[in-house]
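Let's study a protein:

___
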Amino acid sequence: MTSVFPFFLLALVTAVIAVFLKNGGFPVLALTAAVCGGVLILLRLLPFFAEVLSLLRSAADTAGLRVDYLDLVLKVVGIAYIGEFCGQLCRDAGENGVAAKVDLCTKVVIMVIALPLLKTILNTVIEVFQ
């Protein structure tokens, strides 16, 4: 079992450093500290993502599911996570307008990536009702 406390501790230390820097008149350094802390947290999470990916691929193979659909879902989830991370960084920098554009871009990219699956679903529905 993996403990979440190292992640919480890293986040708390990052937040405290960022607050001290911001209140000390160093907003750029505060944002840099926040970005670095966030990247460190993500890097520490990579082995867990790899473990989940391995488990999902194994389950898909066992169930006889098409791996390309699993890959599509994983791409969508990855883009959603990265988009959320980037949007939060923009919000932390006080750029809510840019964050909104990142959110919109994330949604559009996910929609474009999902188009082949949507096409397959629509074709299946059309075949059933013909």
Summary: The mean pLDDT is 88. Residues 66-130 form one domain. The two ends are 51 Å apart (CA to CA). Residues 23 and 30 are 9 Å apart (CA to CA).
